[in-house]
Amino acid sequence: MAYVLAMSGAYVRPFHAHDIPAAGALVAARHRTHRLSCRLLSPRYEQEPAATAQVAAAFALPGASGAVSMQGENIVGFLLGAPKASPVWGSNVWVDAAGQAVPEPELVRDLYELASARWVQESRSAHYVLVPETDEDLLRAWYRLGFGQQQAHAVRPLPDETPVTPPKAVVRRARRSDLPALARLETELPRQHRHAPTFSAAPVPSPARAARSSPSRSHRAPPVR
After folding, report:
1. CATH code for the domain of 103
2. What is the pTM of this model?
């Protein structure tokens, strides 16, 4: 199925495997622009081979699907998402960092119209998208589709000096005897997220269940959280 965009002469159609190289080139161009305002991002993905490998990995995920925007024979934008098997997110589709590139932000609205129709038909009605924070026009396009901001990812340079440990604080390796305290801490974040303003539907594990899922069953002591 393909949808024609009457005003531009472009059209959108489903994403196919042979679209990966063109999508990788678009991601590389987007990353070059992104790094102009965030130099701490890796320059690796400015190169088409590395960016294309990321798109290929996204397309290889189970259940991945999406859409491309065509202008004549050329791909001028794409959207690609896949579900994540986690009770935290419900029946979902995630568009991760390599899952979209649209030089014209408004294109994402048409791409989402086509891609999301399949996602909802597959009973995946919770959709999450990672968008470069510096691309305000793209953010506004997603907001007009009804999306809201949930999280913000950030990078920062490493400090030049070793941070000073606060007085009376001791940093040490965790021991097996710490397991009950670590298990209680494991339940606090999902417990808080069930309240305003998050209202998460994710179950809150009991301390006993958190302890059973701890890496302490390995031969080495669990790391400090």
Report:
1. 3.40.630.30
2. 0.77
